[in-house]
Amino acid sequence: MRITGITVKLLEYPLEQPFYPAWLPGYPQAFHRVNLVILETDEGITGYSAGFAFGQEGLKLGELLAPFLLGRDPFNVEEIIKILRSATFLGLRLWYVEPALWDIIGKALNVPVYKLLGGYQERIKAYASTGELKGVEERLEYVEQIQKLGFRAVKLRFHSLDWREDMKVARAVREHFPKIELIVDANMGWRVAGLGEAPHWDLATAQRVAEELKELGVLWLEEPLDKNDYHGYRLLRQRVGIALAGGEMNSDLHEFRELILNQSLDILQPDATLSGGILTAKKIGGMAEAFGLRIAPHTWTSGLGFAANLQVMGACPNCEWAEFPYEPPGWTPQARDFFLKKPLTIDPDGYISVPLGPGLGVELDEDAIARYAKS
Protein backbone atom coordinates (compact mmCIF):
# COMPACT_ATOMS: atom_id res chain seq x y z
CA MET A 1 0.00 0.00 0.00
CA ARG A 2 1.19 3.53 -0.85
CA ILE A 3 0.07 7.06 -0.06
CA THR A 4 -1.24 8.61 -3.28
CA GLY A 5 -2.93 11.79 -2.10
CA ILE A 6 -2.57 14.37 0.67
CA THR A 7 -5.17 17.04 1.35
CA VAL A 8 -5.48 19.41 4.27
CA LYS A 9 -8.82 21.19 4.64
CA LEU A 10 -9.38 24.15 6.93
CA LEU A 11 -12.74 23.71 8.70
CA GLU A 12 -14.32 26.62 10.54
CA TYR A 13 -17.31 26.01 12.80
CA PRO A 14 -19.06 29.04 14.39
CA LEU A 15 -19.56 28.59 18.11
CA GLU A 16 -23.03 29.20 19.58
CA GLN A 17 -21.50 31.82 21.87
CA PRO A 18 -17.94 33.14 22.20
CA PHE A 19 -15.72 30.88 24.28
CA TYR A 20 -13.11 32.44 26.57
CA PRO A 21 -10.37 29.83 27.12
CA ALA A 22 -8.62 30.28 30.44
CA TRP A 23 -5.27 29.49 28.81
CA LEU A 24 -5.65 32.41 26.35
CA PRO A 25 -6.50 35.40 28.54
CA GLY A 26 -8.22 38.12 26.56
CA TYR A 27 -9.13 35.95 23.58
CA PRO A 28 -12.83 35.57 22.66
CA GLN A 29 -12.91 32.42 20.54
CA ALA A 30 -15.79 32.63 18.08
CA PHE A 31 -14.93 29.63 15.88
CA HIS A 32 -13.59 26.11 16.23
CA ARG A 33 -10.97 25.87 13.49
CA VAL A 34 -9.50 22.53 12.45
CA ASN A 35 -6.87 21.41 9.95
CA LEU A 36 -8.40 18.18 8.64
CA VAL A 37 -5.75 15.84 7.21
CA ILE A 38 -6.88 13.42 4.48
CA LEU A 39 -4.47 10.70 3.29
CA GLU A 40 -5.51 8.63 0.28
CA THR A 41 -3.94 5.31 -0.73
CA ASP A 42 -3.66 3.18 -3.85
CA GLU A 43 -5.91 0.56 -2.24
CA GLY A 44 -8.84 2.95 -1.84
CA ILE A 45 -8.48 3.35 1.94
CA THR A 46 -8.54 6.90 3.27
CA GLY A 47 -7.13 7.95 6.63
CA TYR A 48 -8.13 11.04 8.55
CA SER A 49 -6.65 13.10 11.33
CA ALA A 50 -6.99 16.66 12.58
CA GLY A 51 -5.06 19.38 14.31
CA PHE A 52 -5.98 22.67 15.91
CA ALA A 53 -5.92 25.68 13.56
CA PHE A 54 -5.54 29.14 15.04
CA GLY A 55 -6.04 30.84 11.69
CA GLN A 56 -5.26 29.93 8.09
CA GLU A 57 -1.72 28.72 8.71
CA GLY A 58 -2.52 25.24 7.36
CA LEU A 59 -3.84 26.20 3.93
CA LYS A 60 -0.66 25.18 2.08
CA LEU A 61 0.17 22.26 4.35
CA GLY A 62 -0.90 19.58 1.87
CA GLU A 63 1.42 21.01 -0.77
CA LEU A 64 4.24 21.18 1.76
CA LEU A 65 3.84 17.55 2.85
CA ALA A 66 3.30 15.99 -0.58
CA PRO A 67 6.98 15.65 -1.63
CA PHE A 68 7.77 13.96 1.69
CA LEU A 69 4.81 11.56 1.99
CA LEU A 70 3.59 10.64 -1.48
CA GLY A 71 4.58 7.10 -2.40
CA ARG A 72 5.36 6.04 1.15
CA ASP A 73 3.94 3.00 2.91
CA PRO A 74 1.45 4.19 5.58
CA PHE A 75 2.26 1.09 7.62
CA ASN A 76 5.81 2.35 8.08
CA VAL A 77 4.87 4.74 10.86
CA GLU A 78 8.37 5.01 12.31
CA GLU A 79 9.74 6.28 8.99
CA ILE A 80 7.09 8.99 8.73
CA ILE A 81 7.59 10.00 12.36
CA LYS A 82 11.20 10.82 11.43
CA ILE A 83 9.90 13.13 8.71
CA LEU A 84 7.50 14.87 11.10
CA ARG A 85 10.30 15.17 13.65
CA SER A 86 12.41 16.91 11.01
CA ALA A 87 9.64 19.50 10.59
CA THR A 88 10.00 20.51 14.25
CA PHE A 89 13.52 21.76 13.51
CA LEU A 90 11.89 24.29 11.17
CA GLY A 91 9.30 25.32 13.75
CA LEU A 92 6.47 23.20 12.35
CA ARG A 93 4.53 21.03 14.78
CA LEU A 94 2.83 18.51 12.51
CA TRP A 95 2.43 15.53 14.81
CA TYR A 96 -1.31 15.53 14.14
CA VAL A 97 -0.63 14.06 10.69
CA GLU A 98 0.50 10.74 12.20
CA PRO A 99 -2.89 9.47 13.52
CA ALA A 100 -4.14 9.39 9.91
CA LEU A 101 -1.63 6.59 9.28
CA TRP A 102 -3.15 4.54 12.09
CA ASP A 103 -6.61 5.27 10.72
CA ILE A 104 -5.48 3.68 7.45
CA ILE A 105 -3.80 0.73 9.15
CA GLY A 106 -6.82 -0.02 11.35
CA LYS A 107 -9.19 0.21 8.39
CA ALA A 108 -6.97 -2.08 6.32
CA LEU A 109 -6.98 -4.69 9.10
CA ASN A 110 -10.59 -3.98 10.16
CA VAL A 111 -9.76 -3.34 13.84
CA PRO A 112 -9.65 -0.28 16.13
CA VAL A 113 -6.18 1.14 16.75
CA TYR A 114 -6.10 0.34 20.47
CA LYS A 115 -6.17 -3.37 19.67
CA LEU A 116 -3.19 -2.93 17.34
CA LEU A 117 -1.35 -1.26 20.24
CA GLY A 118 -1.92 -4.20 22.56
CA GLY A 119 -5.46 -3.61 23.78
CA TYR A 120 -6.44 -3.35 27.42
CA GLN A 121 -9.68 -1.51 28.18
CA GLU A 122 -12.77 -0.56 26.20
CA ARG A 123 -13.87 2.29 28.43
CA ILE A 124 -12.30 4.81 30.79
CA LYS A 125 -13.68 6.96 33.58
CA ALA A 126 -14.38 10.44 32.24
CA TYR A 127 -13.95 13.76 33.98
CA ALA A 128 -15.65 16.94 32.81
CA SER A 129 -12.94 19.41 31.85
CA THR A 130 -13.89 23.07 32.18
CA GLY A 131 -12.35 25.65 29.88
CA GLU A 132 -13.25 29.04 31.31
CA LEU A 133 -12.87 30.93 34.55
CA LYS A 134 -16.23 31.19 36.30
CA GLY A 135 -17.48 32.61 39.57
CA VAL A 136 -18.72 30.47 42.43
CA GLU A 137 -22.43 30.41 41.56
CA GLU A 138 -21.91 29.67 37.85
CA ARG A 139 -19.48 26.88 38.62
CA LEU A 140 -21.77 25.31 41.21
CA GLU A 141 -24.57 25.25 38.62
CA TYR A 142 -22.18 23.62 36.16
CA VAL A 143 -21.14 20.89 38.60
CA GLU A 144 -24.76 20.14 39.41
CA GLN A 145 -25.43 19.77 35.68
CA ILE A 146 -22.51 17.46 34.94
CA GLN A 147 -23.37 15.21 37.86
CA LYS A 148 -26.80 14.71 36.32
CA LEU A 149 -25.07 13.75 33.07
CA GLY A 150 -23.12 11.04 34.90
CA PHE A 151 -19.73 12.64 35.51
CA ARG A 152 -18.04 11.72 38.77
CA ALA A 153 -15.11 14.13 38.46
CA VAL A 154 -14.48 17.70 37.31
CA LYS A 155 -11.39 19.71 36.40
CA LEU A 156 -11.40 23.36 37.40
CA ARG A 157 -9.24 26.10 35.89
CA PHE A 158 -6.96 28.21 38.08
CA HIS A 159 -5.81 31.13 35.91
CA SER A 160 -6.99 34.30 37.63
CA LEU A 161 -4.39 36.97 38.34
CA ASP A 162 -5.03 36.23 42.01
CA TRP A 163 -5.22 32.46 42.54
CA ARG A 164 -7.20 33.01 45.74
CA GLU A 165 -10.23 33.85 43.60
CA ASP A 166 -9.98 30.43 41.96
CA MET A 167 -9.50 28.77 45.33
CA LYS A 168 -12.85 30.20 46.45
CA VAL A 169 -14.48 28.31 43.58
CA ALA A 170 -12.69 25.07 44.42
CA ARG A 171 -13.64 25.30 48.09
CA ALA A 172 -17.27 26.00 47.22
CA VAL A 173 -17.42 23.01 44.86
CA ARG A 174 -15.91 20.76 47.52
CA GLU A 175 -18.35 22.03 50.16
CA HIS A 176 -21.47 21.64 48.02
CA PHE A 177 -20.43 18.43 46.24
CA PRO A 178 -18.38 16.43 48.74
CA LYS A 179 -18.45 13.21 46.70
CA ILE A 180 -17.24 14.53 43.34
CA GLU A 181 -13.58 14.08 42.48
CA LEU A 182 -11.71 17.35 41.93
CA ILE A 183 -8.83 18.13 39.56
CA VAL A 184 -7.22 21.54 39.09
CA ASP A 185 -5.38 22.86 36.01
CA ALA A 186 -3.27 26.00 36.42
CA ASN A 187 -2.27 26.22 32.72
CA MET A 188 1.20 27.54 33.57
CA GLY A 189 2.93 25.07 31.26
CA TRP A 190 2.75 27.26 28.15
CA ARG A 191 1.69 30.78 29.05
CA VAL A 192 0.40 32.89 26.15
CA ALA A 193 1.45 36.54 26.06
CA GLY A 194 0.08 39.40 23.99
CA LEU A 195 -3.69 38.96 24.14
CA GLY A 196 -4.31 39.75 27.79
CA GLU A 197 -2.56 39.82 31.13
CA ALA A 198 -1.67 36.30 32.24
CA PRO A 199 -0.76 35.11 35.74
CA HIS A 200 2.61 33.55 36.52
CA TRP A 201 3.37 31.20 39.39
CA ASP A 202 6.80 30.82 40.90
CA LEU A 203 7.76 27.74 42.89
CA ALA A 204 6.60 29.23 46.20
CA THR A 205 3.18 30.11 44.79
CA ALA A 206 2.76 26.68 43.25
CA GLN A 207 3.67 25.09 46.57
CA ARG A 208 1.16 27.18 48.52
CA VAL A 209 -1.63 26.43 46.06
CA ALA A 210 -0.78 22.72 46.09
CA GLU A 211 -0.88 22.60 49.89
CA GLU A 212 -4.35 24.17 49.98
CA LEU A 213 -5.62 21.87 47.25
CA LYS A 214 -4.34 18.87 49.16
CA GLU A 215 -6.71 19.83 51.98
CA LEU A 216 -9.57 19.56 49.49
CA GLY A 217 -8.54 16.07 48.39
CA VAL A 218 -7.78 17.14 44.81
CA LEU A 219 -6.69 14.21 42.60
CA TRP A 220 -3.95 16.15 40.86
CA LEU A 221 -2.63 19.65 40.16
CA GLU A 222 -1.90 20.18 36.48
CA GLU A 223 0.75 22.45 35.01
CA PRO A 224 1.61 24.64 38.02
CA LEU A 225 5.01 25.46 36.40
CA ASP A 226 6.51 25.87 32.92
CA LYS A 227 6.46 22.68 30.85
CA ASN A 228 10.26 22.46 30.75
CA ASP A 229 10.96 23.43 34.36
CA TYR A 230 12.06 19.90 35.21
CA HIS A 231 14.04 20.99 38.27
CA GLY A 232 11.22 23.15 39.65
CA TYR A 233 8.74 20.32 39.26
CA ARG A 234 11.07 17.96 41.07
CA LEU A 235 11.39 20.35 44.01
CA LEU A 236 7.65 20.93 44.11
CA ARG A 237 6.92 17.21 43.97
CA GLN A 238 9.28 16.64 46.90
CA ARG A 239 7.60 19.33 48.99
CA VAL A 240 3.88 18.64 48.49
CA GLY A 241 1.69 15.62 48.96
CA ILE A 242 -0.49 16.05 45.90
CA ALA A 243 0.01 14.41 42.50
CA LEU A 244 1.43 16.68 39.80
CA ALA A 245 0.49 16.35 36.14
CA GLY A 246 1.64 17.89 32.87
CA GLY A 247 3.02 17.35 29.41
CA GLU A 248 0.23 18.35 27.01
CA MET A 249 2.56 20.68 25.09
CA ASN A 250 5.76 18.72 25.63
CA SER A 251 7.01 17.26 22.38
CA ASP A 252 8.54 13.93 21.44
CA LEU A 253 10.19 11.27 23.57
CA HIS A 254 13.14 13.32 24.82
CA GLU A 255 11.06 15.89 26.70
CA PHE A 256 9.03 13.18 28.42
CA ARG A 257 12.26 11.33 29.17
CA GLU A 258 13.47 14.41 31.04
CA LEU A 259 10.19 14.69 32.95
CA ILE A 260 10.60 11.09 34.06
CA LEU A 261 14.33 11.11 34.84
CA ASN A 262 14.01 14.35 36.81
CA GLN A 263 11.13 12.83 38.81
CA SER A 264 9.05 15.87 37.85
CA LEU A 265 5.54 14.46 37.57
CA ASP A 266 3.23 11.73 38.82
CA ILE A 267 0.98 11.84 35.76
CA LEU A 268 2.13 12.39 32.16
CA GLN A 269 -0.34 13.95 29.73
CA PRO A 270 0.79 13.45 26.13
CA ASP A 271 -1.65 14.38 23.39
CA ALA A 272 -1.44 12.22 20.27
CA THR A 273 -2.02 15.29 18.08
CA LEU A 274 0.47 17.54 19.89
CA SER A 275 3.19 15.40 21.47
CA GLY A 276 4.35 13.07 18.71
CA GLY A 277 1.43 11.04 17.37
CA ILE A 278 -0.27 7.87 18.53
CA LEU A 279 2.83 5.68 18.47
CA THR A 280 4.88 8.17 20.48
CA ALA A 281 2.04 8.60 22.98
CA LYS A 282 1.93 4.82 23.44
CA LYS A 283 5.72 4.79 23.96
CA ILE A 284 5.38 7.55 26.57
CA GLY A 285 2.69 5.49 28.28
CA GLY A 286 5.10 2.55 28.37
CA MET A 287 7.94 4.66 29.79
CA ALA A 288 5.59 5.99 32.46
CA GLU A 289 4.44 2.48 33.33
CA ALA A 290 8.05 1.33 33.74
CA PHE A 291 8.60 4.07 36.33
CA GLY A 292 5.32 3.48 38.18
CA LEU A 293 3.71 6.62 36.76
CA ARG A 294 0.27 7.19 35.26
CA ILE A 295 -0.88 8.87 32.07
CA ALA A 296 -3.99 11.00 31.46
CA PRO A 297 -3.78 12.33 27.89
CA HIS A 298 -4.79 15.87 27.03
CA THR A 299 -7.79 16.00 24.66
CA TRP A 300 -8.72 19.68 24.14
CA THR A 301 -8.52 19.66 20.34
CA SER A 302 -11.31 18.19 18.19
CA GLY A 303 -13.50 15.11 18.02
CA LEU A 304 -10.98 13.34 15.79
CA GLY A 305 -8.13 14.27 18.13
CA PHE A 306 -10.22 13.02 21.04
CA ALA A 307 -10.81 9.72 19.22
CA ALA A 308 -7.06 9.32 18.57
CA ASN A 309 -6.26 9.87 22.23
CA LEU A 310 -8.98 7.46 23.32
CA GLN A 311 -7.30 4.77 21.22
CA VAL A 312 -4.08 5.41 23.17
CA MET A 313 -5.93 5.32 26.50
CA GLY A 314 -7.53 2.03 25.57
CA ALA A 315 -4.09 0.47 25.12
CA CYS A 316 -2.50 1.77 28.34
CA PRO A 317 -3.10 -0.06 31.63
CA ASN A 318 -1.78 2.94 33.57
CA CYS A 319 -4.54 5.26 32.30
CA GLU A 320 -7.48 5.68 34.68
CA TRP A 321 -9.12 8.95 33.60
CA ALA A 322 -10.19 10.43 30.26
CA GLU A 323 -10.52 14.19 29.84
CA PHE A 324 -13.91 15.21 28.41
CA PRO A 325 -13.85 18.89 27.33
CA TYR A 326 -17.19 20.46 28.23
CA GLU A 327 -17.97 24.15 28.78
CA PRO A 328 -21.41 25.08 27.44
CA PRO A 329 -22.72 27.10 25.76
CA GLY A 330 -19.49 27.96 23.93
CA TRP A 331 -17.79 24.58 23.99
CA THR A 332 -20.10 21.58 23.69
CA PRO A 333 -19.74 18.06 22.26
CA GLN A 334 -21.41 19.33 19.09
CA ALA A 335 -18.89 22.18 18.74
CA ARG A 336 -15.96 19.87 19.50
CA ASP A 337 -17.11 17.04 17.21
CA PHE A 338 -18.91 19.04 14.51
CA PHE A 339 -17.42 17.06 11.60
CA LEU A 340 -18.16 13.62 13.09
CA LYS A 341 -21.41 11.77 12.39
CA LYS A 342 -21.94 11.21 16.12
CA PRO A 343 -20.48 13.27 18.97
CA LEU A 344 -18.48 11.35 21.55
CA THR A 345 -20.46 10.98 24.79
CA ILE A 346 -20.23 9.30 28.17
CA ASP A 347 -22.45 6.52 29.46
CA PRO A 348 -24.74 6.83 32.52
CA ASP A 349 -21.98 5.41 34.74
CA GLY A 350 -19.59 8.23 33.84
CA TYR A 351 -17.34 6.26 31.48
CA ILE A 352 -16.42 7.00 27.88
CA SER A 353 -15.91 4.10 25.49
CA VAL A 354 -13.02 3.76 23.11
CA PRO A 355 -14.48 4.09 19.58
CA LEU A 356 -14.60 0.52 18.30
CA GLY A 357 -14.86 1.07 14.56
CA PRO A 358 -11.86 0.31 12.34
CA GLY A 359 -8.95 2.75 12.63
CA LEU A 360 -9.68 5.72 14.86
CA GLY A 361 -13.14 4.26 15.27
CA VAL A 362 -15.32 7.20 14.23
CA GLU A 363 -17.14 8.19 11.04
CA LEU A 364 -16.81 11.61 9.49
CA ASP A 365 -19.77 13.68 8.35
CA GLU A 366 -19.01 14.56 4.72
CA ASP A 367 -21.88 17.06 4.58
CA ALA A 368 -20.51 18.92 7.61
CA ILE A 369 -17.02 18.90 6.12
CA ALA A 370 -18.35 20.44 2.88
CA ARG A 371 -20.41 22.98 4.81
CA TYR A 372 -17.61 24.25 7.04
CA ALA A 373 -14.61 23.88 4.73
CA LYS A 374 -12.72 27.09 3.95
CA SER A 375 -10.18 25.43 1.69
Assigned CATH class of the largest domain: Alpha Beta
Structural class: alpha/beta
Output the CATH homologous superfamily of the largest domain. Answer: Enolase-like C-terminal domain
Tally the helices. Answer: 13
Task: Output the radius of gyration.
Answer: 20 Å
In the CATH hierarchy, the architecture of the largest domain is Alpha-Beta Barrel
Principal-axis shape equals globular
The profile of the biggest β sheet is: 9 strands, mixed
Percent range of helical residues? 25-40%
Strand content: 15-25%
* Average of per-residue pLDDT values: 96
Helices and strands, in order, run as: EEEHHHHEHEHEHEHEHEHEHEHEH
CATH fold-type name of the largest domain: TIM Barrel
Secondary structure tally: strands: 12
The N- and C-terminal alpha carbons lie at a distance of 27 Å
Total separate domains: 2
Q: Which regions contain 5 or more consecutive residues with pLDDT less than 50? A: none
Give an overview in words.
With 375 residues, this protein is α/β, with parallel strands linked by helices. It has 2 domains: 3-110 and 366-372, Enolase-like, domain 1 (2-Layer Sandwich), CATH 3.30.390; 116-353, TIM Barrel (Alpha-Beta Barrel), CATH 3.20.20. 36% of the residues lie in helices and 19% in strands. The protein has helices spanning 61-69, 77-88, 98-109, 113-116, 136-149, 163-176, 203-215, 230-239, 252-261, 278-290, 303-314, 333-336, 366-372; strands at residues 3-19, 29-41, 46-52, 123-129, 153-157, 181-185, 220-222, 243-246, 267-268, 294-295, 321-325, 351-353. Strands 4, 5, 6, 7, 8, 9, 10, 11 and 12 form a 9-stranded mixed beta sheet that branches. The chain starts with a strand and ends with a helix. The mean pLDDT is 96.
